Amino acid sequence: MSTHTTIPTSTPPPTDDGGFITVPKGLAKVVVTDTALGDVRGDEGFFHYRQYSAVELAEQVGFEQAWHLFERGHLPDDDELSAFTVEVGRLRVMPPELADLLPAICSSTNDSLQVLRTALSAWGGITGLRPLYDCAEEEKAAAALAAVAVTPTILAAAHRLHRGLEPVPADPTLGHAADYLRMVTGRLPSARDARAVEQYLVATMDHGFNASTFTARVIASTGADLAACLVGAIGSFSGPKHGGAPSRALEALDEIGTLDRADVWVRERIGSGERIMGFGHAVYRTRDPRSEMLKAIARRWDDPLVDLAVGVEDAIETALAELKPGRELHANVEFYAGVVMKLAGLDPSMFTPTFCVARVVGWTANVLEQSRDPKIIRPAARYVGPPPPQPVPTGTRTRQAS
Ligand SMILES: CC(C)(COP(=O)(O)OP(=O)(O)OC[C@H]1O[C@@H](n2cnc3c(N)ncnc32)[C@H](O)[C@@H]1OP(=O)(O)O)[C@@H](O)C(=O)NCCC(=O)NCCS
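A: This is the predicted complex of the input protein with coenzyme A.
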């Protein structure tokens, strides 16, 4: 059941300012387009990919099936899945020109997400991406598939290069999630580790009109190329308020150390005006269904970290309910994401990059959808500086280098 209300064009806007409409800060609840890709129902704690519950998909299907759903509009039958798996497996292999360039990119930063940002930009040049504006649908779809496929290969290679290790080439015969883990760690993952990471990836492919998706769509609306859209999306995603929180949430668990310290820890943080990473959400006003799912996945491990996380979650929720009454602050996707990824053998430096391996599916699908809309996204801002026009102060002259 949709809770969206559309204002008919004949109805006066909620706040009218000389033909401009003032919308809530952060554009909260402002509907800016139609999408057939999915939605988040914050009050119900539910989100979906096309017509299916995303959590149910994560429980039942693999990465390639969910990716096919976004890319081709439906869940694949057996033949379609085999063909799709072969196609994307081949695309996971990094173009040699990019493999040659990657060590130089890695030498400029230790952050794998920054490497991805630069590498995808270079990849766009290497593969000859053209502006979306000039591309037919098939060309755009092919670029989208290739970008998603090569993302884990770039990230895994960056991770290894940063540690002085040789990158592990992609194995097109493996599934996307298992191959990603193998390319990062250098060994074939156990079925439990591969499936846990795959479920995490499926559950985080897309999530409504979040900041990075909106960023990607703004760039797509200008007709720029796909790499430009993805580079912008990654930049937006990297912030701690968006995709940059899972390693910080795990750091908090490390810092708390034992359950009896959780209450004091959270009160000190809130007292000094900090936010608790891995808690709160811009849309959910109830539990984040991804966090619930990831907690269940984490429980597959008999590990003290899981008991600590479950206890700390309760303690933080209780303290937040008291310190921030009426805000409904619960654990979000990032709280248990770090726990699951750590247990599956991923280094904390790869938590946000791994989130990207998933989210690039949603970004590309959104970019393609946006590219079919001819209207450029171009909002307005209210000017609040000194009233113009004022004369330019006398004595201000153009200075030219002599
Ligand atoms: C996700 C997030 C950015 C959503 O922010 P938002 O929708 O803008 O929420 P608001 O800023 O409206 O916050 C409402 C209130 O809850 C508080 N709050 C929100 N998240 C909080 C958190 N994680 N810890 C402590 N307080 C929090 C705010 O300080 C604010 O309190 P106030 O009214 O006393 O000022 C925010 O919850 C956050 O920063 N969380 C931590 C980072 C994180 O986990 N990000 C991953 C998101 S999936």
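The chain has a mean pLDDT of 93. The chain has 16 helices and five strands.
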